[in-house]
Amino acid sequence: MLLVGKTVLVTGASAGIGRATAIAAARHGADVAINFLGSEDEAASCVAAITALGRKAIAVAGDVADPATASDFVTRAAEALGRVDVFVNNAGICPFHAFLDMPVETFERTMRVNLHGAYFMVQAAANQMMRQGQGGAIVAVSSISALVGGEYQTHYTPTKAGVHSLMQSTAIALGRHGIRCNSVLPGTILTDINKEDLADPEKRARMAQRIPLGRLGEPDDIAGPIVFLASDLARYVTGAALLVDGGAFVNLQ
């Protein structure tokens, strides 16, 4: 029970890593606000799973690519749950596409969601934490793609490197206010973001064989490290990046 008495906000939390993180936070004693875009049924299901654990929960719809969504989400979460202690920036997209004919809109949409959205969401959460005057924790979901390239991810990898860099800089900017900022860098995790890319069983098996732990990741594999970074166990950890990839990055030979 690492988050008892805390209020946790998670973006992109109706499915995948965001959903797993929101529910894990509730299991550890937190009340949770989730941001979502898309399926209201999935958002309602996540809220139901949290309330079934005896915690409070709300779902707030909004496109993180719109800067106004950030202040709306944080304000409504604080009003409903009383405060903001932990903010998890998870929302992201990766529409796979070749580099040479990358559509401008695909590139710009990916930037607006993954990087611009992270910037304004983190800014809004940090301002709320400052107003409360008791510090807080911010965790951003970056990616192993911040460290390595991808032929069909030339629009995506720069955003994830940017999210990691954002956490490094905000760790400096917000440290004096008692706000810790860290990132997690997932490896290949089975979520909607890569469902089509990994639809081929042979490709999935080939990817799994490259991972020392012998399998692709699942959303719950990332939720645990996020809860750790959000908790007081990590009270002296800020500006750090935690690679959670089953050992894929180090397996170069």
TrEMBL record:
The keyword NADP applies. GO terms for molecular function: oxidoreductase activity, acting on the CH-OH group of donors, NAD or NADP as acceptor; quinone binding. One of its GO terms (biological process) is rhamnose catabolic process. Keywords: NADP, Oxidoreductase, Rhamnose metabolism. InterPro entries: KR_dom, NAD(P)-bd_dom_sf, SDR_fam. It catalyses: L-rhamnofuranose + NADP(+) = L-rhamnono-1,4-lactone + NADPH + H(+); L-rhamnofuranose + NAD(+) = L-rhamnono-1,4-lactone + NADH + H(+). Pathway: Carbohydrate degradation; L-rhamnose degradation. It holds the Pfam family adh_short_C2. PANTHER family: (3R)-3-HYDROXYACYL-COA DEHYDROGENASE, SHORT-CHAIN DEHYDROGENASES/REDUCTASES FAMILY MEMBER. Belongs to the short-chain dehydrogenases/reductases (SDR) family. This is L-rhamnose 1-dehydrogenase (NAD(P)(+)). It comes from Sphingomonas taxi.
